[in-house]
Specification:
The protein is about 80% helix and about 0% strand. It is flat. It starts with a helix and ends with a helix.
Length: about 220
């Protein structure tokens, strides 16, 4: 392994990391928004919207992100809808993640005893207020491990963004390998930079899960 090659490529990987992080976290935030919105609709049992949410969740959970990106970036322009590669990446990741987040929140909600909602309603809260102030905060506590796992999963899925010409970490590695054939150095840097991106999320998630579990039991 050539140290000079690694030092030469470091700035390119640093730029790719910043782009990957920006698009990845934009997608994660969208996923959380979509997930909460879908959970809200399901919990309130709005007939037509609930059916649409179910179709959305099944569609995006059962198709690969690669296929979804191809559809957003190459098929939608045929219908007059054009997006930049960065917007396409963020939206695709958000739609995929929203389906997984919705299922994570659903499992968290099912962990809440029905007496919680009944007690909130008996205190004069509306169904919406009970959901917002009583049910969802507790469901988030139960769902935290699933949320962290989904975030890590979504950030790893950014590795397919190279198919829509985004200069992410994977694109940079493949490009440099194709031009200079420095496979060992390029792939070593790729692994290191993915660890830099994902390891802090995993450590923070484990810490947060412990904190919320201790708070739940009053420790």
């Amino acid at each position: 392994m050539e140290k000079e090659v690694i030092l030469q490529y470091l700035p390119l990987y640093r730029e790719a990391l910043l782009l990957t992080l920006r698009i990845g976290w934009q997608g994660v935030l969208l996923a959380l928004v979509f997930g909460v919105a879908c959970t809200w609709i399901r919990q309130l049992k709005i007939p037509v919207l609930k059916s649409l949410v179910t179709v959305y969740i099944e569609l995006f959970r059962n198709t690969p992100l690669l296929v979804q990106l191809f559809f957003l970036y190459f098929a939608l322009p045929k219908a007059g809808i054009r997006m930049t590669p960065e917007l396409c990446g963020s939206l695709g990741l958000g739609l995929l993640g929203g389906a997984y987040m919705a299922e994570t929140f659903r499992s968290g909600l099912e962990s809440i005893a029905p007496i919680q909602e009944e007690s909130a309603l008996s205190l004069g809260m509306t169904s919406m207020q009970a959901l917002r102030y009583v049910i969802l905060p507790q469901a988030a506590t139960y769902s935290i491990s699933g949320i962290v796992a989904n975030v890590i999963f979504l950030l790893k899925e950014t590795s397919v963004f190279s198919v829509i010409s985004l200069m992410d970490l994977m694109f940079t590695a493949k490009d440099l390998i194709g031009m200079y054939a420095k496979t060992l150095e390029c792939l070593t840097l790729l692994v290191v930079f993915y660890l830099i991106m994902l390891l802090p999320v995993s450590v923070f998630g484990s810490w947060l899960e412990r904190r919320m579990r201790r708070a739940e039991f009053g420790a």
